[in-house]
Write a structure and sequence with these properties.
The complex is a heterodimer of chains A (283) and B (456). Chain A is α/β, with parallel strands linked by helices and 283 residues long. Chain A is built from nine helices and 17 strands. The chains are: A alpha/beta (283), B alpha/beta (456). Chain B: This is Dihydropyrimidine dehydrogenase.
Chain lengths: 283, 456
């Protein structure tokens, strides 16, 4: 099969948005679900959380950060190019219901999957407070989009170049200590951020949901590579998740398993760079 | 008494360094000599032993005449995937087990002859198939493993409009992701799939039923549905350390190697941990495949850990012998009790306990019982769990009324009909993990049922 890239743009350095023509996937997609793509015949299957979807236009939006070989190769592709495979929607959809006030926390490229959830929570009448964060202002994505679907938008940057000087967790704690009753927190970002949010919300009686991104192959429950420990029980993130209750997640195991192929990832990237020309950005 | 023609093989010390096919196939002379051994019994027992009832004496007699084209014609009347079956069927448990020659000498090597005919046809170029007039009826096939491919083939031949849905990016199911290249070259599976598409069947890969569409939706859009979704959910043991880095399900290990071609990394993008000391838990064909793949990836030592004895190993004898020739160590009457943790949550050995065989259990096999105080540690940095699989429930998401057993297998009657009208099922999704040929038999039965149903 072939899936056309209908639009591509760089949001901030190393982070790109792509709209992929996949009408069947777009028609079935819901917030919280993910897709798996494969660039070409030799490609790896990589999971990415769905950032948005347009049923009428028949495309799915993905937002990714250049990290390893596959994401660097993907970043070099342009509108009009085709992906070999694009499978989804996978995983369980977020349980989005009317509950009152919801705080949505997005860190780095994790802001992308938070966006459709914020919109969905707001559409059915929840009060949405969004907290988004990045290392610095120039790396912050989707600020306008998040603003448009939030009743209140708070920004944190590690260096203080925009909004709160510090981490998103500081803002989460402020909200929890404030007067407003918070009914649910959804946090998506790097595992270290999600672990920190889980740590902050733990003493409070507030449901906290995180979206896990372990290594997976098929995404349909077949390989078991995405095993996570949830409250002492082994779950497959691809079919039982990707969203789980933060206080039950063994983040140390998740982070350790994510580092399993670090050596191979470096090797793959090095081999890829060697194959690139002089004008290559990835050098 | 004549004895069977041995099939040439790649020598063990060579083949452990490559993923090419181990068994090389008969030469024409060998095939003719082997065919000559057939007594062409009036009441052939072998046919009864074949889940798809191939007219075995019929095709063998054509071979005796040197008419291989007609021989493959006879096979293909009832078997869609002869090149596959000739390689992976447990003939010793089926057709060959009942061969009259086996009583006094060795049975005729039916599988090898089947393979010869199929390979010969493929080399010469497969003729375009004859398809019945279009019936205007639409059938959905969910899953493209042996059951789905067989059902698709028979239904397309009957003139129905067939659409196959596959969740992975390539059709073939376990034939592609599970069985290694050295036992079943993927080019063969691809050609079989292409043949079915020549019959007019459409293939939609990257298409997960239960996610993109529900079974309910398929029922609305198609006149009949066949579920051949297999048993793809890996079982784990539930012991300490099972989530450590370096513990794989056999499904994941084999999928990385076979479907994703991780053995060619970094030329292919998917990595795999090669390991120096690999332990494979389990004694079936999947365990043998995983162990032999690990060996080919360059592990220094690969062991099978199995809780019963050699006699109970469920794998085919041929696979066990091949594994032994390749230096796989068999640590029998051993059961893992926990996986030891090393640095950064990696595997640092497996603690096992010795077992002895007690009284027979419900399966009729003698039940293994742990020997107190016999715990010992086996060196390992990679552990592969190959203790079986169960059906994948993803297909049922969002659909109502499909009856399943407490074990997750789909309930069907003898004709392959599920609790839903116009929906049949067969293969591992119904039986739990079994063989390629039994899945094909079920696919064939279901195709017949669907054909009758659509003719009404």
């Amino acid at each position: 099969m072939a899936y056309k890239i209908v639009e591509k743009r760089q949001l901030v350095p190393d982070v790109h948005l792509m709209n992929i023509e996949a009408p069947d996937v777009a028609a079935a997609a819901k917030p919280g679900q993910f897709i798996i793509l494969r660039i070409d015949e030799e490609g790896e299957r990589i999971p990415l959380t769905i950032a948005d979807y347009d049923v009428d236009e028949g495309f799915v939006t993905i937002i990714f950060q250049e990290m390893g070989k596959t994401t660097k190769q993907l970043a070099k592709m342009a509108a009009g190019d085709e992906l070999q495979d694009f499978v989804g929607p996978l995983g369980k959809a977020s349980e989005i219901e009317k509950i009152g006030t919801v705080v949505l926390v997005g860190g780095g490229v994790g802001i992308a999957p938070v966006y459709p959830q914020a919109r969905a929570y707001r559409e059915i009448g929840n009060k949405v407070i969004s907290i988004i964060g990045a290392r610095n202002e120039s790396l912050l994505i989707l600020e306008d989009e998040m603003n448009a679907v939030s009743d209140e938008l708070l920004v944190a940057t590690d260096d203080g170049s925009k909004g709160h000087h510090g981490f998103v967790t500081d803002l989460v704690k402020e909200l929890l200590d404030g007067d407003e009753k918070i009914d649910r927190i959804v946090a998506i970002g790097p595992p270290i951020m999600m672990r920190a949010v889980a740590g902050v919300t733990d003493p409070y009686d507030v449901e906290t949901i995180v979206s896990l991104n372990p290594i997976m192959v098929d995404g349909t429950g077949m390989c078991g590579g995405c095993r996570v420990n949830i409250g002492g029980e082994t779950k497959f993130a691809c079919v039982d998740g990707p969203e789980f209750n933060a206080k039950d997640v063994d983040f140390n195991l998740l982070m350790s398993r994510l580092s399993l192929y670090r050596k191979e990832e470096m090797e793959s990237l090095e081999t890829y760079k060697k194959g690139c020309g002089d004008d290559c950005k990835c050098q | 008494m004549s004895i069977t023609q041995e099939m040439p093989e790649q020598p063990a010390d060579e083949r452990i360094h490559n993923f090419e096919e181990v068994a090389l196939g008969y030469t024409e002379d060998q095939a003719m000599l082997e065919a000559e051994r057939c007594l062409e019994c009036k009441k052939p027992k072998c046919v009864e032993g074949c889940p798809v009832n191939i007219d075995i004496p019929g095709f063998v007699s054509k071979m005796k005449e040197g008419n291989f084209e007609e021989a493959i014609g006879v096979i293909k009347k009832t078997n869609t995937l002869p090149a596959v079956c000739g390689r992976v069927c447990p003939q010793e448990e089926q057709c060959e087990k009942l061969c009259i020659l086996g009583k006094k000498s060795e049975p005729i090597s039916i599988g090898r002859l089947e393979r010869f005919c199929a390979d010969r046809e493929r080399e010469a170029g497969v003729k375009d198939p004859v398809v019945a007039e279009p019936t205007g009826k639409k059938v959905a096939i969910v899953g493209t493993g042996p059951a789905g491919l067989t059902a698709a083939s028979d239904l397309a031949k009957a003139g129905h409009s067939v659409t196959m849905f596959e969740a992975l990016h390539e059709a073939g199911g376990v034939l592609i992701y599970g069985i290694p290249e050295f036992r079943l070259p993927k080019a063969i599976v691809k050609e079989e799939v292409e043949y079915i598409m020549k019959l007019g069947a459409e293939l939609k890969v990257d298409y997960v039923i239960g996610r993109i569409k529900t079974l309910d939706q398929l029922e609305d859009e198609f006149d009949a549905v066949f579920l051949g979704t297999g048993a793809g959910l890996p079982k784990f043991m539930g012991i300490e350390g099972e989530n450590l880095n370096g513990v794989y399900s056999a499904n994941e290990f084999l999928t990385r190697v076979n479907l994703m071609k991780a053995y060619r990394f970094p030329e292919s993008d998917t990595p795999i941990k090669r390991g120096s000391h690999v332990i494979v838990v389990g004694g079936g064909n999947v365990a043998m495949d995983a162990a032999r793949s690990a060996r080919r990836l360059g592990a220094d030592e690969v062991s099978i850990v199995y809780r019963r004895s050699d006699d109970e190993l469920p794998a085919r004898r041929e696979e066990i012998e091949h594994a032994k020739e390749e230096g796989i160590i068999f640590r029998l009457l051993n059961n893992p009790v926990r996986i030891l943790e090393g640095e950064n949550m990696s595997v640092n050995g497996v603690e096992c306990i010795k077992m002895e065989l007690g009284e027979p259990d419900e399966s009729g096999r003698r039940r293994p019982v742990a020997v107190d105080g016999s715990e010992h540690v086996i060196d390992a940095d990679i552990v592969i769990i190959a203790i079986g699989t169960s059906p994948n429930p993803i297909i049922f998401d969002g659909s109502k009324g499909l009856e399943v057993t407490p074990w997750g297998t789909i309930v069907v009657n003898e004709a392959g009909v599920t609790s839903l009208e116009g929906v049949c099922a067969g293969g591992d999704a119904v039986t739990g993990a079994a063989t390629v040929i039994s899945a094909m038999g079920a696919g064939k039965q279901a195709a017949e049922t669907i054909n009758d149903y659509l003719s009404k």
